[in-house]
Specification:
Layout: E1 2-6, E2 13-18, E3 36-42, H1 43-59, E4 63-69, H2 78-90, E5 98-103, H3 105-117, E6 123-128, H4 131-137, E7 142-147, E8 150-157, E9 162-166, H5 175-192, H6 194-208, H7 212-232, H8 247-256, H9 263-281, H10 286-299, H11 311-318, E10 331-336, E11 339-343, H12 348-356
Parallel strand pairs: 2-9, 3-4, 3-5, 5-6, 6-9
Antiparallel strand pairs: 1-2, 7-8, 10-11
């Protein structure tokens, strides 16, 4: 088992990574016998992993309730928040209850947000079950829900007390979910680590076949990279924005299609548009652009914009991005493989040209 510490002084917490780690002694620390917990998951995971996790919690002597959401990004909204809060109140949970999020980014974000607001804040633990949530969404304390006008527009920063990454969960994921998660993995390599990008080029087939050694290294490296950024800038005042390569364009796709796209699919296209933006600005070598696009295509990720989404639709949602300031759209753009920068003054015509270049011809 690997352990990484997110060092945030009084709010520091461990990330545990490994196979079959739910059986590890004290994995749920600081929870103890007779503590009340609410396990939050979805209908899909309920039939696969819920009882296994409940069994481990029961062995620790905890008093466990459960709440099950319908599965899907479209349920990541205020109505779901109301349902969970109502159930907590109905079952007389108080400030000493700990929520446990068993699921992907939707469950983690929803559960964390409710933890941040229920009786002005209670503890929660992340047990991410998708590759995307294990390498990204479960780490760093971003919680929230979507609004019809934009993704993650309602939320808070609320750190978990631990993140438990059990890599066995990945064995029951669909191929599409693995592919979606690899979009965020590639994002980390493009943004921060050239050597990791080279490693991905060499080991991609091994990851897709769920080789244990490759998966373990891949997830650990992403967790290290995100932890480094979160430790410097917990609440996204500046440096944490660098984690958002492709997200300004990608979130527009998710919002336009009412969250029917997998997050990683939308971010893949968003990254390609960001690459083309860098190309137009003359800040990224064409060879690097093609090298990145080839890797995305090898994974099986989309790299062209759906024909039924207009340029104006992009701009409509991009102007609402949380990184923006005084109406100016901020973009995170690559300047080399392994390096990204924040750009606040990209001309709208440049963005339009980049978007136009990414429609399928």
């Amino acid at each position: 088992m690997e352990k990484i510490v997110v060092d945030l002084n009084n709010y520091s917490y461990p990330i545990y990574i490994g196979f079959n780690i739910l059986s590890e002694k004290n994995i749920f620390y600081p929870l103890k016998k007779n503590d009340r917990v609410m396990l939050v998951t979805n209908t899909t995971l309920s039939s696969i992993w819920k009882n296994i996790v409940l069994n481990y919690l029961s062995k620790y002597g905890m008093i466990v309730d459960e709440f099950i959401f319908l599965d899907g990004e479209k349920y990541k909204n205020l109505n779901s928040v109301e349902l969970l809060v109502s159930d907590l109140l109905k079952k007389l949970h108080d400030r000493h209850t700990t929520l446990i999020a068993l699921g992907g980014g939707v469950i983690g974000d929803l559960t964390g947000f409710v933890a941040s607001i229920y009786q002005r804040g209670i503890r929660f633990i992340q047990i991410p079950t998708t590759l995307l949530s294990q390498v990204d969404a479960a780490i760093g304390g971003k919680t929230g829900v979507n609004h019809i006008s934009g993704k993650n527009m309602i939320g808070s920063f609320w750190q978990p007390i631990s993140v438990i990454i059990n890599l066995n969960f990945l064995n029951t994921l669909s191929h599409n979910q693995i592919v979606s998660g690899l979009s965020e993995v590639i994002k980390y390599a493009i943004s921060f680590d050239y050597d990791f990008f080279v490693w991905l080029e060499k080991n991609l087939d091994s990851i897709l076949s769920l080789n244990e050694n490759s998966l373990s290294y891949c997830v650990k490296r992403c967790c290290e990279l995100k932890t480094n950024i979160v430790t410097i800038d917990e609440k996204e005042n500046y440096y944490r924005m660098l984690l958002n390569l492709g997200h300004t364009y990608g979130h527009a796709i998710e919002s336009y299609f009412k969250y029917s796209w997998l997050h990683g699919e939308a971010i893949s296209i968003g990254m390609v548009i960001a690459l083309r933006t860098s190309e137009i600005l003359g800040i990224l070598d064409k060879f690097d652009i093609e090298r990145i696009i080839i890797l995305l295509q090898r994974v099986g990720l989309p790299t062209t914009i759906p024909s039924n989404m207009s340029i104006n639709s992009f701009l409509k949602y991009m102007i609402r991005d949380k990184k923006n300031n005084l109406g100016k759209i901020k973009l995170i753009l690559p300047t080399a493989i392994g390096q990204v920068k924040i750009f606040e003054d990209v001309d709208q015509n440049t963005m339009i040209s980049a978007i136009q270049s990414c429609y399928k011809t």
